Amino acid sequence: MRHRHRIFGNxxxxxxxxxxxxxxxxLLRLGDSRAAIAEEVNSHISPTPVANADLxxxxxxxxxxxxxPDALLAAIRRxxxxxxxxxxRLENRIQAxxxxxxxxxxxxxALIAAEKxxxxxxxxxxxxxxxxxxxxxxxxxxxxxxxxxxxxxxxxPEFAAGFLGRMRSNAAAExxxxxxxxxxxxxxxxxxxxNARAPLQ
Length: 201
What we know:
The protein is 86% helix and 0% strand. The protein has 201 residues and is mainly α. Helix 3 packs across helix 5. The radius of gyration is 64 Å and the shape is rod-shaped. The model is unreliable at 1-9 and 44-61 (pLDDT under 50).
């Protein structure tokens, strides 16, 4: 038992000695690491000298500050010139529109005058045609029914019906009685159709 106690006693003393040695080595290493970290931190914190070439020269700063108003004034003048040119274009366009409006008015007036002249010419032509038809109707009425029937038999049925519709009833009846039955029937149908389409009032 004593021998076993001596062995365990020596073993405990040896383990304690190893632990103390390892602890001392760790403290030395920790001290070296702290020193290295502190040195690196100081190197980053210490101010770095700035080269004079990186700072703007006083002359350049003054020149830039002096040229800024000139550049702004030039930009304002360019903008004014653009606005003046745009205003001039608008004025020219308005003037062109006024000229076009005047020409359109003149053309409209000329067209209205031409329409009036055309209407007057057509009225004259209609009046002349009506006068010619009235004279021809009077001529046919004055002819002998047999002779007039010979002329009406050569006319188109619509044309003959137009003249017979203008004549007095007795004169038209005498001419129809001297026409061929087929011709007289066709003319009578045309006259009846015209009278049917005529307004009652």
